[in-house]
């Protein structure tokens, strides 16, 4: 764990040089290219051979000297010109990805990496995994460090989408889940207040000692031999720590022991208190995502993750072919995936599926049929999708099929042709979040090592006269838009529980500035809990464009231009026309205030608006767009 105090930068000592650099960058007609930026840094280096100014130095300088010596006044939108990786927050929110600790997994999938330093399916060389390991997988340390990095690089930290990855979330103990989420909130609140407790947490972790004395770097699993499974190996390495954590949790719960900052225990009451604080905190959670398996989704599990504040579930479909699932030892069938999606839809969750072509026993033709089923069958139709072509990793059991000649990776041309077809068949309501997993080429034994395959696919589509129409390909991002540029478009499709309505504000070129997902359940769809009885459901509201702080307005920006309110009012109108008396929203903790201001009242796990009262208040029509009155909405509000 790094002590970053030694990297402290004194902007005042570099005032003259920083102001000169900032004037050049901010007065440029557009953002400097990477090459132009590097040339500028070389032309004006730090004095006395101290090296070059970093992006964090420039951002710090702008925050200190804005409005002085000819620099423009501080404006958060101007930070865009300083950022080297602005794409991270161009979807309207700031993503915060964390990994859980190594832990046994209920699956035995032959394609899955078995790196015992990591939670199941992750590799220590992946960027996010490296950050997690450096922070001993502690949620407080991971959160604080990532927020600090974003802040230093000029990104907004007001609206955070929390993404919890690692193994099967539903298989971790409930006390660990509650503690993990609660500590994320603790770090967000501390960071927003300028409080840094990392030294205290790090000291507690060193005392606790995560490992049991086994040299973890010497423990590997050979997929070709598989003398021991991931679960067996992890249990051997972490057995003492697991027993210790379980015992501590019991003693803390019964008041026999005081809790330390690294003890993995928190109560529901403590989490709920942290959630209430986050409603008005400087760093708010506008989304909470977990990942799990279809066979671990039950009514009870759905309610539990909702109680944690979850709004989206990443779920591994992998394949919709029972034969392929069985050959790959997935441990569940397609029927389990159907049941899981239905339960998640009933609860209003966004469904972020993972799909894997090139699995053992499949073929390009089988994968094409599988993808057709993914969006052709109402029981599936995910809102977001990660396409992860199977990669051969040395620690995976798939090595045995590979060495026997029973499985081979698709060639570059086969994979390109398959993915071009997938892109062409992806509907507008879905977002292709990722194409090709971010696995370092050094970890791949055989197969594709090209990480920018999405660009290759889009280039090939363009060559054929087409283009991708998924959400990610159509986001307005940093483009200036106004009310006159946009029109409201409606797309409806059937789901396993009723009808989905996808409302989107788009340009004439169908670029998307904002959207809303509205679920209209059939009368036969039995709600999971009484508070949702008779309710239509807003599952997501999202306004795209450069992430702006809460209450910050940017001329020509889609965010804070009233689009979220207009979409909600149109959804309420549609729900009322279809006979629904109430409209629920699966709101995030940090967006509850936003929905309260729009007529929604707090329920047990949802916020609900009485549509019958709307008619009397004259709220049946969507409000007129007004760019002069910015909407202080959060951007990912459900």
- Given the structure, what is the number of helices? 20
Structural class: alpha/beta
Average pLDDT for all residues: 87
Largest sheet: 7 strands, parallel
Low-confidence stretches: 1-7, 211-215, 552-560, 620-637
Per DSSP E runs of 2 or more residues, the count of β-strands stands at 16
What would the principal axes of the Cα set say about the shape? globular
Going across the major beta sheet, what is the strand order? 1-2-3-4-5-6-8
Q: Helix fraction?
A: 25-40%
**Percentage beta strand:** 5-15%
Provide structural commentary.
By secondary structure, the protein is of the alpha/beta class. It has 4 domains: 4-84, no CATH class; 86-292, no CATH class; 312-332 and 350-428 and 431-469, no CATH class; 474-617, Aminopeptidase (3-Layer(aba) Sandwich). The chain contains 20 helices and 16 strands. It has helices at 15-27, 34-43, 55-65, 127-134, 139-152, 174-193, 198-208, 230-253, 268-278, 299-307, 322-327, 334-346, 364-376, 398-403, 412-424, 453-463, 471-474, 563-577, 592-596, 611-617; strands at residues 94-99, 159-165, 284-292, 312-318, 350-355, 384-387, 392-393, 431-435, 444-446, 487-494, 498-506, 512-521, 535-543, 582-585, 601-602, 607-610. A 7-stranded parallel beta sheet has the order 1-2-3-4-5-6-8. A 7-stranded mixed beta sheet has the order 10-11-12-13-14-16-15. Strands 7-9 form a two-stranded antiparallel sheet. Mean pLDDT is 87; it is low at 1-7, 211-215, 552-560 and 620-637.
